[in-house]
Amino acid sequence: MTWLDVPRTHPFGIQTLPYGSFTTPDGPVPRVGVAIGDDVLDLTAAAATLLPEQAGLFAAGGLDPLLAAGPPVWAAVRAAVTEWLTEPRHRAAVEPLIVPASEVSLLLPFTVADYVDFYSSEHHAANVGRIFRPGSDPLPPNWKHQPLGYHGRAGTVVVSGTPVVRPAGQRRTADGEVVFGPSTRLDIEAEIAYVVGVPSTPGRPVALGEFADHVFGVCLLNDWSARDIQAWEYTPLGPFLGKSFGTSVSPWVVPLAALEHAWVAPPPRDPRPLPYLDDTGRTDGLDLAMEVRLGGHPIAQPPGAGMYWTPAQQLAHLTSGGAPLRTGDVYASGTVSGPEPGQRGSLLELTWNGAEPLTLPGGETRAFLEDGDEVVISGSAPGPGGTRVGFGEVRGRILPTPQTSDQEGPEQLRP
Amino acid sequence: MTWLDVPRTHPFGIQTLPYGSFTTPDGPVPRVGVAIGDDVLDLTAAAATLLPEQAGLFAAGGLDPLLAAGPPVWAAVRAAVTEWLTEPRHRAAVEPLIVPASEVSLLLPFTVADYVDFYSSEHHAANVGRIFRPGSDPLPPNWKHQPLGYHGRAGTVVVSGTPVVRPAGQRRTADGEVVFGPSTRLDIEAEIAYVVGVPSTPGRPVALGEFADHVFGVCLLNDWSARDIQAWEYTPLGPFLGKSFGTSVSPWVVPLAALEHAWVAPPPRDPRPLPYLDDTGRTDGLDLAMEVRLGGHPIAQPPGAGMYWTPAQQLAHLTSGGAPLRTGDVYASGTVSGPEPGQRGSLLELTWNGAEPLTLPGGETRAFLEDGDEVVISGSAPGPGGTRVGFGEVRGRILPTPQTSDQEGPEQLRP
């Protein structure tokens, strides 16, 4: 138990201790923080006096050096923070280094190296297949053989709270005309993101059992998607501009050490995966329960448990051809959707491509996102002793496309 | 004319002055260099005494600070280097700072931020269509409306000379079996890469006319491709592991200032591009003549002139949805193929998917790359006064897939 006044039911109780990067109005220089209850421990300041041998990891105010430091250091830092917050003898030194969470601004906590997005929910992939290829097999023929994925744009990964500007782009209208303008089908994708700490060696695949040697922690991710831009561009090279105008991540990275009680068996697979993906006997599924709210109203509860491909399999596949990992690599699960309609992690599925709009309290309906809409995705996983390990939230509000000359017609460009 | 003994016909004459990063056996700390003839000027050392107001740009030994500095600084540095190498009064100071190129090791010259690969040669795209979709329209329906592209893996971009390890991966055999093992169809793609210097503002597209405000220079790129892995994985999310085991770039970045004589009109387009891509009246095509050699034997001469989509259009498209540019972003043309069989920039096309193997001097044949094969891509563009602006070369040799337990069968994994 911590000496702070944090209820056992708090998602950011002592069982969680996620890491982030923050500033305050009085302290504009970024610092590393650890969330505890409704407060934030200034780890940069605390380490300077209480953990001097590791203080250098936190001096720059972001998580990059900690991520690179590896499992023994991760364990030592977590043990130290746990001790500071639980043993009363540390209270006098630590309490002055605690800031109310309401007073901090949270930053993108680490430098994103490469960003990969997978497609690992069978329910999501099958829903997409049923919507776009009715009458044929809902899953692509390769889907059950490998965790399909693609590289996204690392430079458009932003922290929760960053406004998302509705992208302009090319789309093909129902009558076959190709036009350029603000996306008319702006969507979300509720996903789980894995943050790589320790690099791997080029040419050396990372086996399933080596997941925890490389991955530092987990956060939530909203892969904002412009369905109209995506639909017109994605054959044959995959998603590009339809998904590279903003990808939001939650500001708190929950370390794997907080998730010991959250691993579950993955669903049965048929066919049996090839040896490098065969996790028979392992429990590599993450039981992360998510909630999606639109304008404050809950619209979906996507379940991380039940994902067909696990994060360990995603990592093994990603590195199977020899691609090395770098500190700050992020890979995401793909949209998390469960078998029930209320468990779908995208509006595409929740509204069945707009055919069945959601009705919000007050009577407004939504097929896709309107300007001004705010989406919040939160999540938690089982912790020790019946507690929940919180992931906080990833939040974003849609801003209208700015007017630029690019969206004017040829007449305006050539007077 | 430079006071060095450099013939006017030298591709690295005074008209070129490309930038790179190098070490020497005596000087293992990276320095910025400028190629001149068969030598390299140590710009880090030269700037310290001769250009002190800009010396900080070169102190770290890589190009990142120079890239970020922007066009006025790029012009000032190039003018200074040109003056040092042409005016005899500088000879005494500069000559001691010149190292024979044969004595330097060239490094990846800048930090790659995001890497995007386009698909902008109509001849290449049509050849691919004819090979894989005979009887149907060779180009996808979106191809003439936008420069198609996808994000590649920035962490696997390597400098020329780095060995390329044949990747293992999943493929589907001719009889439909899915197996994992070393790629059996390893290929090259001869491409032109554009290196972004100046960031752009999120949400603010970069117009065609702003290309030179952001792009610093150009290099050669070999997008090594495992066709069997790619063919099995790429529907519907595009190329992933089939192209993320190694992407080689040439070590010398040729600044745009050296390419004033190299721009040509692009081919006629039908349909006329949308306004943000409409370059009527502009001459944004790059007349970069490439040569591909396999085992020392020339196998193709891909022409950069004639690419359907120009680098200015690629940049306008990439940013059209608001994605910001970062210093070190690289985007590549896609395979450069011309209309003639000898102008095709991939083995896929040169051997028509292996059906028409190349015969090398000595009688060996090649459908795809064998272990030990070395591929060298070189290039040059028109310079002032009938000179050629050289791009040097991008070189790589194929190493065999290392043996790992991942490639053993299930019997070995479960004794």
Provide an overview of this structure.
Two copies of one chain form a homodimer. By secondary structure, chain A is α+β, with helices and mostly antiparallel strands. Chain A has two domains: 19-107, SH3 type barrels (Roll), CATH 2.30.30.230; 115-401, Fumarylacetoacetase-like, C-terminal domain (Fumarylacetoacetate hydrolase, domain 2, Alpha-Beta Complex), CATH 3.90.850.10. The first copy, chain A, contains ten helices and 26 strands. Chain A has helices at 43-50, 64-69, 71-86, 91-94, 122-132, 211-214, 227-233, 311-318, 347-350, 410-413; strands at residues 19-23, 31-36, 39-42, 98-100, 105-107, 115-118, 149-151, 157-159, 164-165, 168-172, 178-182, 186-187, 190-196, 215-222, 225-226, 247-249, 254-255, 263-264, 285-286, 289-294, 297-300, 330-332, 358-359, 365-366, 374-382, 388-399. In chain A, strands 6, 7, 8, 13, 14, 16, 17 and 22 form an eight-stranded mixed β-sheet that branches. A five-stranded antiparallel β-sheet of chain A has the order 4-3-2-1-5. The longest helix of chain A has 16 residues, at 71-86. Chains A and B meet through β7, β10, β11 and α7 of A and β7, β10, β11 and α7 of B. Chains A, B: Residues 15-109 form the Fumarylacetoacetase N-terminal domain. Chains A, B: It is an enzyme of class 3 (hydrolase). Chains A, B: Pathway: Amino-acid degradation; L-phenylalanine degradation; acetoacetate and fumarate from L-phenylalanine: step 6/6.
